[in-house]
Amino acid sequence: MEFSLSPRCQELQALLTEFMDEHVYPAESVVEEQVSASGDPHHHPPIMEELKAEARRRGLWNLFLPHKTEWTEGLSNIDYAPLAEIMGRSPIASEACNCSAPDTGNMEILTMFGTPEQQERWLHPLLEGEIRSAFAMTEPAVASSDATNIACSIRRHGDDYVINGRKWFISGALHPRCRILIVMGKTDPDAAPHRQQSMVLVPIDTPGVTVLRNMRVFGYDDAEGHVEMTLEDVRVPVSNLLGEEGGGFAIAQARLGPGRIHHCMRTIGAAERALELMCRRAHARRPFGKTLAEQGVVQTWVADGRIAIDQARLYTLYAAWLMDTAGNKAARTEISGIKVAVPNMALEVIDHAMQTHGAMGVSQDTPLARMYAWIRALRFADGPDEVHRQSIARRELRRWA
Ligand SMILES: Cc1cc2nc3c(=O)[nH]c(=O)nc-3n(C[C@H](O)[C@H](O)[C@H](O)COP(=O)(O)OP(=O)(O)OC[C@H]3O[C@@H](n4cnc5c(N)ncnc54)[C@H](O)[C@@H]3O)c2cc1C
Questions:
Q1: In this structure, what DSSP letter does residue 120 have?
Q2: Atom number in ligand 1 closest to CA 146
Q3: Ligand 1 within 6 A of 136 CB?
Q4: Of the residues 145, 204, 371, 397, which should be mutated to test ligand 1's pocket, given the most ligand atoms within 8 Å of the CB?
Q5: Cβ atoms of 142 and 150 closer than 8 Å
Q6: 196 in helix, strand or coil?
Q7: Is 386 close to ligand 1, i.e. is its CB under 6 Å away?
Q8: Are 289 and 234 in contact, with CB atoms under 8 Å apart?
């Protein structure tokens, strides 16, 4: 068993750490100021374009994509994991490096299932960082943790598909550069349960697409938005089908593997930052005659945080290695496992970090409160904990039946 990182990964790690220190952390408050001065929580701050140009200049661009394409070299999941962790320390780093959700998952399925025309029109500008995208599966009317419930209809009329449905929590759709939606719906409600769904590419400005409102997360208006939208008689050419008719469920599975592990990698970085903030605060604060760092209870939180983060990182790296060596499907138990373990681990570390900060911990003066809100939401997004536990338990029980 080899624990050291590859030379390429170590080189990128050093470059990325330097970029974070010199550009990303100092830009966090600038992003907030520019967004707040615009009066629009979904404003695209000009500094983001400067960060993107700098990241690109330093070769820190599209690191997430494991596939070699016409436009990318490809980097393995095991090499990407430590880099995504570094980006996860800041809420703005992933976008700066063109590695943010939901685009990464969308770019991956466009790479795997897109036609050359679809790739030229949508994948290429996404890889260039010129446009953003959203993935529209979840619906308010049905229990969407079971994707077979998705009710949005996609009917063929001549050379077009006509789409009708209502979606919500569609992340990224309010980004001013969002141009394309990958919509999941049913092309054949009478087929076998996992062959009823298809995915269709829908330009966001197609007539009939209406954004109704943004869904706030714990009261936060996230910059990229999580919108509720309707699709009414939305017409797109049949050439906008992604993959084959009836293949939507399989594509969703293909998308969720990398999407989920990327969330976990970034979440480990967020937990590391929370632990660092907790330690700094523990040294600085002095109630009842000694620093918080000298209090047994704080030392327990710090030690438990270190143990929990290191456990979660090893589990995530193992899942990444399995994806690289045996394929995403072979790694599905481990991907479900990290999707449960990592956000729950991080929430506990962040909670202790907030407690160590006193009232400041739940305010806007540290990144902790926003981190907590987002990572709590991750316990639903890309599958609730219970659904992942169910699939792990089914496989484990089957072994002994
Ligand atoms: C911030 C955020 C961003 C999101 N972004 C997107 C996006 O970009 N695109 C998109 O399509 N969706 C997105 N989602 C939606 C997310 O994927 C769904 O919320 C999730 O799949 C659960 O579906 P649901 O909300 O309909 O919950 P339901 O299906 O109604 O489930 C409710 C609860 O039931 C429980 N449950 C479900 N199954 C089981 C079981 N087998 N055993 C025991 N308990 C169970 C779980 O606790 C679950 O939380 C986002 C969600 C959030 C919060």
A1: I
A2: 29
A3: yes
A4: 145
A5: yes
A6: coil
A7: yes
A8: no
Instruction: Specify the DSSP element, H or E, that contains 399.
Output: helix 385-399
Three-point CA angle 10, 11, 15, nearest 5°: 115
List, in sequence order, every residue forming a beta bridge with 231; answer none if it has no partner: 165, 209
CA distance 14 to 7: 11
- From the CA of 184, give the closest atom in ligand 1: 11
Predicted pLDDT of residue 252: 87
Q: Is 203 a pocket residue for ligand 1 (Cβ < 6 Å)?
A: no
- Burial per residue of 277-288, b for 16 or more beta-carbon CB atoms within 10 angstroms, e otherwise: bbbebbeebeee
Query: Cβ neighbours of residue 326 under 8 Å, at least 6 residues apart?
Result: none
What distance in Å separates the CA atoms of residue 50 and residue 221, rounded to the nearest whole number? 23
What is the distance of C-alpha 169 from the center of its chain? Answer: 13
Instruction: Supply 101's token pair.
Output: 């959700």
Q: In this structure, how many other beta carbons lie within 10 angstroms of the beta carbon of residue 151?
A: 14
The residue whose CA is least distant from atom 22 of ligand 1 is 145
Q: How far is the CA of 159 from the centre of ligand 1 (A)?
A: 34
Please work out whether the CB of residue 125 comes within 6 Å of at least one atom of ligand 1: no
Report d(CA 92, CA 97) in Å as an integer.
9
Q: What residues pair up with 135 in beta bridges, in sequence order?
A: 182
Q: Is 384 in the pocket of ligand 1 (CB under 6 A)?
A: yes
Nearest to 49 by CA among 40, 57, 41, 37: 57
Ligand 1: atom nearest CA of 382 is: 17
- The amino acid at residue 233 is D
Question: Of all protein residues, whose CA lies closest to atom 11 belonging to ligand 1?
Answer: 137
Whether the model pTM is above 0.85? yes
CA distances from 184 to 37, 127, 142, 153, 196 (A): 37, 22, 14, 9, 10
**Average pLDDT along the chain, 401 residues, taken 10 residues at a time:** 93 98 97 95 96 97 89 90 96 96 93 96 96 97 95 97 98 96 97 96 98 96 94 98 95 82 96 98 97 98 98 97 93 96 98 98 95 96 95 97 94
pLDDT for the residue 149: 95
Of ligand 1's atoms, which has the minimum distance to the CA of residue 142? 26
Nearest to 81 by CA among 240, 262, 236: 262
DSSP H helices, 285-384, are 296-326, 332-356, 368-377
